[in-house]
From TrEMBL:
The keyword Repressor applies. It comes from Hymenobacter daecheongensis DSM 21074. It holds the Pfam family B12-binding_2. PROSITE patterns: B12_BINDING (PS51332), HTH_MERR_2 (PS50937). Keywords: DNA-binding, Repressor, Transcription, Transcription regulation. Residues 175-300 form the B12-binding domain. The keyword Ribosomal protein does not apply. This is DNA-binding transcriptional regulator, MerR family. Gene3D superfamilies: 1.10.1660.10, Cobalamin-binding domain (3.40.50.280), Methionine synthase domain (1.10.1240.10). It comes from the Bacteria.
Amino acid sequence: MGQFSISDLENLSGIKAHTIRIWEQRYGILRPERTPTNIRLYRDDDLRRLLNVATLCGQGHRISKVARLSDQEIAAAVISCSDDAHDYARQVNSLLAAMLELDEPRLYQLLSEAVRQLGFEAAILHVAYPFLQRIGILWQTGSVNPAQEHLVANILRQKMLAATDALPPVAPAAARRWVLFLPEGEMHELALLFMNHALRARGHHVLYLGQNLPAAELAAVCRAYQPYAVCTVLTAVPERDQVQDFVNQLARNCPDVALILYGPLVQAQTSLTLPPKAIRPALMTEFLALADQLDARSNQ
């Protein structure tokens, strides 16, 4: 069971702390416990209720009427409320509430609807990515368990694989070639899967090697495949003090190849010395802009 401060609730729901206090004091929306020093502590049920209330209020419902509904009535109203494809905050809040309940059918339905309305790439950027960022906040407060995280990750993985499989095949002889991989011990695959889809959708050919690949294997891969670029995402490995060595080894194994280095470990290394043909995009949108630019050049 999680414990949240009011600032945690603000970050997770998008509702200002001042408004949360008013809703709590005037309408009894939340019922926090208090520490011996009179500090409010909120629980999982408070967060779920706040997310659902925020969703309804974002749809134009008056807080005074929402406050009179039971939890079951609020949940039913959230499910039946009208959909606005560009109301990203509402969609993220609905996903968080479904995740906390381990409601797999609802999670799948919400993500499928976002993809249908927005298109795959926009749904990932505007709904799935903010959703994952909120989950990160929940991790920091100790309020997400491994089952909840794995449920979300596996549904998103299924969506990405299905969307990629639906793309037309690309002949390697007629396209820029990319190698995508995660280093040995790295299992966080969602960003790399999204990159794989984005590149294929733009007409690039991708040799997708996936998770947990020893870096030494890349030398033979680059000799045989002759890629334009090698791309990796560093989330949990290598250790921070070994990132420079890993980048240097990558450059040795794949000389004269563009290196695309993405992920929090890369961004955290402010003193990282990059090889001449290495690029370090800070955001996924920067990576997509690079793919668009290269796609445009290949079509000239």
